[in-house]
Amino acid sequence: MRKILFFLLLSVATQAAVKDTIAKYHFSRYAILDDDDDCDACGCSASGGSMGFASMLNTNFVGVRYLNQQYKSSDGLYSNSAWYTENFNTLQLWARIPVLKNIQVSVLVPYHFHSRDTKTGNQRLEGFGDVTVLAMYRVYQTHRDSTIVTHTLQLGGGIKAPTGKFNETNSGSLNPSFQAGTGSWDYLLASEYILRRKQFGLNTTLNYIMKYENERAYRFGNQFNYAATLFYLHEKNSFSMAPQIGLAGEVYASNFQHGQELVNTSGDILFSKIGVEMGKDKWSFGVNTMLPIRQNLAGGNVQSQYRLAVNLNYSL
Length: 316
Prior knowledge:
With 316 residues, the chain is mainly β.
């Protein structure tokens, strides 16, 4: 059944362009991507870079997630230049499915509906984004019955397909990430380490996204994401709850067009994050929010206001 669901998800993506042995619900890999799973750099990545690519409670699942990111942008020409609001909204079909003993595959199919204010009025964008497929291999895991502290290390890689539309006109705007997709085949490297003692744990993730030039000779800059999350797992009967708090960061290299580096397209940002996920039987509901601590995006002309994620999952 799991393999059938996996291939069904891949079919949907094409048309759009280990279980824990201790308990049914437990803290799963709060993980990957970043990211920047979609159109990246200062805005419209499908998962918001460091918002994660996995459920907190369900190791293997299929579900839906809503992401909202709000930004303000200005041309910065004058001290009193106007600031405009940008709203990036994404509805995702996402899943994490075991295919072999130590290998899990995550699939993410995003649909974007963005809007922003401009000098000439409100601009809207809607459509499927870039589909991401990521495989993670469990390199090491401590036997839970042999020690008080457990360790888990996973390494993996993936690919992002250009199923979302890239609008060359928008690439010349102040925030070039107002896109449904990058228009390029991009590749991901990811790692995850989990340290856990009883109900408490620390999850750390690193991932790097390598982006390539699209058919319009535009290339988004490579992206590095990192995160550290403290969590506490409460389980009683069929009910589970996992509050978490942590830090997450993203570093963007400069974009290029026709081989020329574009100024004010690189940057970095550090977020605080807090959230909780609750599960009952095979269902779980989660909410996470991220607030910027410090940032330097697009030469200071783009400012992140917040990120918010809400998800509903069904455990496989």
